[in-house]
Amino acid sequence: MYIMERSIICQLLILFISFDIILCFPSYQSLIPNGNAVPDTCEKSDIWIGVGHVGPLGSGDRNVFGNDFAKYGRQWTKTLCQLDSDGDGRTNGEELGDPLCLWKPGSNVTLQKAISNPVPLRLKTFVCMRYSLPTTEDYHMIASKPIYNNRKAVNYIAVFGCTSSVEATDKPYYCNVMPEPGCDELMSGYVPMCLDEHAGIQIGRTGYKHVLVQWFFSNPDLKDDVFDNSGIALYYTPKLRRYNMGVGTIVATGFTIPPKQLSYNVTSSCPGFCTEKYLTSDIHVAMTIDHMHLFVNKKSSIYGMEQNKDPIQVKAKDSFKMTCFYNTTLLGSKIGGGFDYSSEMCLGRIFYYPKESWTQPSCASYRSIPLCSLNAGGTVSGCNINHFLLMLRKSPLFTTLKSDCAPYLVCTNACLEHVARIRRHPCLQGDFYQLWQYPKYQKDPFLYKLFRSFKLCEKDYQEHGSFIHNSHAH
Ligand SMILES: *[C@@H]1O[C@H](CO)[C@@H](O)[C@H](O)[C@H]1NC(C)=O
Ligand SMILES: *[C@@H]1O[C@H](CO)[C@@H](O)[C@H](O)[C@H]1NC(C)=O
Ligand SMILES: *[C@@H]1O[C@H](CO)[C@@H](O)[C@H](O)[C@H]1NC(C)=O
């Protein structure tokens, strides 16, 4: 991240190394005994307690194990270690890489790999599981570390916090690149991360009670003997830090990248009038994680994480801006923006604190339009949505549209005249005009009616519209 004139520019980085893919139902490595993994994640190991939450055990029967774990005081005891929670003939210790039950928090016993399963063949596969988190107390999650056992098979692991009341699952299931509603707040994943020492992500009693863990698998050769048991460890502490960490999103949508471009950029932003409205006090940006797909220009680096040693202070009226650079020299045709793998992505996550100070932590843009402007009411490319809608409501235009356009199934001259007049408005030009084509943005009944009239007269407008408008103007 770089500060430029009080704007923040995130450089985007690649996340996926391959376009290939595929499928396994793994049983994942679990890291209940975790002590020796901690120093890798953060330097200060003394504040960790026990273990984080984790990948499932054995063939995914994490619930059974979770129950036992709770039953034995949430500690890795010899008894718990020697149990066979999921009944697959192997002890918990064997499955967790501690077959002799020697591991203790802080000990140096090296964990062995957990046992893995092969899975059905598939091209691209996202697999998810939901887990319960401990809820007896409030905790801060302060670090996390994916454990990739088969880098060829796993493109990444991501963890999302669930805000709705969901149940833990006892098996992995196929899911989408954007996980389900209610479990869509990114918390960690991709790369090891150690949160800024002032803040942690709330889990437990008043924070997330469940997480969704998502694996993105790849099997380029469509082999049927691919195994994986990757997982992720989350580190948390009951010693709450001063601030809660929030994770905001910045994402570009609606874009198209032409082929044969060495350096094509796509941006998304939250202008100052949005932060002025949505920041209740200064925030500090501690880290960003970016997410692009395949056609990444060398200006971006491989893993999309930027950690700011001194978190960047962002004040009301500062702006966020993200720029993604693409290299489509090898591409024969254009590529659009989207979440699936035949599209490109330009998305960033902003880890900031205090969480509560940014009330709408989203900076999505549709092409050149920051979507926060639809609610915050600022002016973009000469268009102020609030003023525009107010103008529509007050003007006689709306009634005339109704009487001259609505009753007919063809475009009348009277209707065409209204259409020609209003369509010159900056709020109906270019990207705005495209944006309003999406029903979800036509929530306002005025806009809806207006666009019905436009549709009716589109052909005539293209042929005669500017002429009509000009003759009126004189
Ligand atoms: C673990 O600790 C024991 C005693 O503290 C020591 O003898 C042993 O070499 C250590 N093992 C590793 C792998 O560091
Ligand atoms: C993005 O592309 C535009 C148009 O080519 C160019 O004017 C602008 O400087 C580029 N921005 C960055 C950050 O490279
Ligand atoms: C763009 O992609 C081509 C083809 O993969 C590669 O040779 C070139 O080095 C890339 N350039 C940049 C700036 O990313």
Automatic annotation (TrEMBL):
Record keyword Nucleotide-binding present: no
Keyword Metal-binding included in the entry's annotation: no
Domain Temptin Cys/Cys disulfide, first and last residues per copy: 24-118
Keywords, in A-Z order: Disulfide bond, Signal
Domain Copper type II ascorbate-dependent monooxygenase C-terminal: 247-365
Signal sequence annotation: 1-24
Superkingdom field: Eukaryota
InterPro entries: Cu2_ascorb_mOase-like_C, Cu2_ascorb_mOase_N_sf, Cu2_monoox_C, PHM/PNGase_F_dom_sf, S-S_Temptin, Temptin-like
Entry-linked Pfam families: Cu2_monoox_C, Temptin_C
Protein name (record): Temptin
Organism: Tegillarca granosa
